[in-house]
Specification:
7 strands; alpha+beta; single chain; elongated
C-alpha cells in the first residue's frame, strides 16, 4: 500500500515538472506596449508593460482607458508597468495606446471585445416596473380626477389651525395632570 502512494506522488510530480507553463497572453507591437489580457471586454482591468525604457516613469494614453495610465519601473531593468480599466462604454474594436519613453514614442494597440451578453434573460423583471392595479379603497373616489365629488384642494385654514392647537393644549394638560397624580400616589 505504501509503494502505491509513492508511485502516485512521483507520477504527479513528474507530470507537474514536464507540463509546459503557458506564458501570459500579451498583445504587443514589437518593442511597443504590451497589454494583458490581449482582448479585454469593456469594464475589464488591464495590465500594461513597456520594455527597454530609459525613464523610470511614463504615462500611457488611449481612448480605450478610463484615464491616463501611470507607468513605473518594475524590478526588471528598463521595464515599466501599470494597470488601468477599459471604459465600460468602449465600443468593440482596436484602439491605439501611446507611451512617451524619454525621447522615444512607443505605440501599441488594444482590441476591445464586444461585451458578453448573458445567455439567459429573465422572463419577468425582478421588481415591479409599474403600480399594481389593486383598487383604491375608500378614498379612490376622492382622488379620481373625473369624479363628481371633487377632493378638497384648499389647505387647512385658520379654523383648522386653532382647533389643532386647542387639542394639543388639552393633551398637554392631560399628560401633566397624570404625571402629578402618579407622583402624589408614590409619595403616600
Amino acid at each position: 500500500m505504501g509503494s502505491l502512494k509513492v508511485t502516485l506522488c512521483a507520477g504527479a510530480v513528474l507530470a507537474a515538472v514536464c507540463t509546459p507553463v503557458a506564458p501570459a497572453a500579451y498583445a504587443a507591437d514589437g518593442d511597443g506596449v504590451a497589454v494583458t489580457p490581449s482582448s479585454p471586454a469593456p469594464g475589464a482591468d488591464v495590465a500594461l508593460r513597456v520594455p527597454d525604457c530609459t525613464e523610470r516613469t511614463a504615462v500611457a494614453v488611449s481612448a480605450a482607458f478610463e484615464s491616463d495610465v501611470r507607468l513605473s519601473a518594475a524590478d526588471e531593468g528598463g521595464v515599466l508597468v501599470g494597470s488601468s480599466r477599459v471604459r465600460s462604454s468602449a465600443a468593440a474594436g482596436a484602439y491605439a495606446v501611446r507611451v512617451t519613453c524619454g525621447r522615444d514614442a512607443r505605440q501599441g494597440t488594444i482590441t476591445v471585445d464586444a461585451p458578453h451578453r448573458p445567455a439567459h434573460r429573465p422572463s419577468a423583471p425582478s421588481s415591479p416596473v409599474a403600480p399594481v392595479d389593486a383598487g383604491g379603497g375608500g378614498a379612490a373616489r376622492l382622488a379620481a380626477p373625473h369624479s363628481d365629488d371633487a377632493a378638497r384642494v384648499d389647505p387647512p385654514g385658520t379654523a383648522h389651525t386653532v382647533t389643532g392647537l386647542v387639542l394639543a393644549g388639552i393633551a398637554a394638560v392631560a399628560v401633566g395632570l397624570r404625571g402629578v397624580r402618579s407622583r402624589s400616589r408614590g409619595a403616600d
